[in-house]
Design a protein that fits this description.
With about 350 residues, the chain is an alpha+beta fold. The protein has 12 helices and 11 strands. Helix 8 links the parallel strand 6 and strand 7. Helix 4 runs antiparallel to helix 7 and helix 11 runs antiparallel to helix 12.
């Protein structure tokens, strides 16, 4: 499966130069790029030189690149889109009852979380981080805010990761009375009370679900703990830029999708020297375990190393893992041969189109 990862695909030698000159790259895949508009769409045409071109039945395809999933939903209803990448949570009830369409939900190897700034006060304090983490009711979040197949999370690796297996129990227990009481006690121990409230800045990117989740976290903490949250909503590109500028946030939204179906694709991003370790935490024992797992060839021994590493990561509370994604799509019944997968990768060359 490593060779199915897009970064391993071969590229035509001159394509890098063509990209630098704002020309379309030469494709050795099932389709060729014939049009593109930044922030709008990419148009592909069937590649007649592809080795298996006879099996590619859809002649052309247009991918929309917008972040506005409500707009995509409306275009689907108007017959202008035939397969969506997602469905807004606020549209789920409508989506389930659409005629001539199928609402498809399947588990996805993606985790949604907030990284906490562990390099500066107030969240360089593990007690404070633990208090914020354990006070959140994930079950309520996925049931009332999202409500479309998501699974509560308290650590990065989905419980349905093939060949792994680690208990996800804390995700279903955090937010209960005993954990909220522990959280309040931890904050009081660090001097945070009704008269001296913890103040944190939380950064998230534009999107209806992201906003609803941010508001849920803010309301949860404000109602049960002496915590005030200042919300900051920015464009996704700005969010990625500000991941590196920790002076502008205490907690920042993030997510990670598996590059391939293995626990290491999640756990390796939290090592001390990983550029994707947004929280900036340093865990030497964790690093040793991840390195050991990378060179271990016996599967059971390797899994034990990865499980130990994940347990260290969860106890650090440097990231607040909230839920594992469900792949939610609307499929026009004109699209056939559609088979969902846990990586969320749907290749047009494997689809078929019927005009009936």
């Amino acid at each position: 499966w490593l060779l199915e990862y897009p970064l391993t695909y071969p590229m035509h030698r001159n394509s890098a130069l063509r990209l630098r000159n704002n020309e379309f790259p030469i494709s050795n895949g099932a389709y060729q790029i014939v049009g593109a508009a930044i922030g709008s769409d990419i148009t592909l045409q069937k590649n007649p030189y592809y080795y298996d071109a006879e099996s590619t039945t859809i002649e052309s395809v247009r991918y929309l690149t917008t972040q506005d999933q409500n707009a995509v939903y409306n275009r689907f209803r108007a017959g202008q889109v035939h397969l969506t990448a997602s469905v807004p949570s606020t549209r789920i009830n409508q989506a389930e009852s659409l005629a001539d369409a199928e609402f498809v939900v399947s588990p996805q190897l993606t985790v949604y979380y907030y990284a906490l700034n562990t390099t500066a006060p107030p969240l360089n304090n593990k007690n404070v981080r633990r208090a914020l983490d354990i006070s959140i009711d994930r079950v309520k979040l996925v049931a009332t805010v999202l409500a479309s197949g998501q699974v509560p999370a308290a650590s990065p690796v989905p419980p349905y990761m093939p060949g792994y297996g680690r208990s996800n129990r804390n995700a279903f227990e955090y937010g209960s009375d005993r954990y909220v009481q522990e959280a309040a006690a931890l904050l009081a121990e660090e001097g945070y009370t009704v008269d001296n409230r913890l103040k944190i800045r939380m950064l998230y990117n534009t999107g209806s679900d992201h906003r609803r989740i941010a508001l849920y976290l803010k309301a949860t903490w404000a109602s049960s703990l002496p915590v005030d949250v200042e919300l900051d909503n920015v464009d996704f590109r700005v969010l990625l830029d500000r991941h590196r500028n920790k002076s502008t946030w205490d907690a920042v939204r993030s997510s990670w999708s598996a590059d391939y179906p293995d626990a290491s694709t999640f756990l390796s991003i939290f090592t001390s020297d990983s550029p994707n370790n947004i929280a900036g935490t340093k865990m030497p024992k964790y690093d040793v375990l991840i390195d050991a797992a990378a060179s271990e060839t016996e599967q059971m021994t390797r899994n034990k190393l990865l499980v130990q590493a994940e347990e260290i990561l969860e106890r650090e509370h440097a990231n607040i893992f909230l839920y594992y994604y469900a792949d939610r799509r609307l499929r026009s019944k004109k699209i056939t041969s559609y088979v969902p997968n846990s990586l969320g990768i749907i290749k047009t060359q494997h689809l078929a189109w019927t005009s009936g």
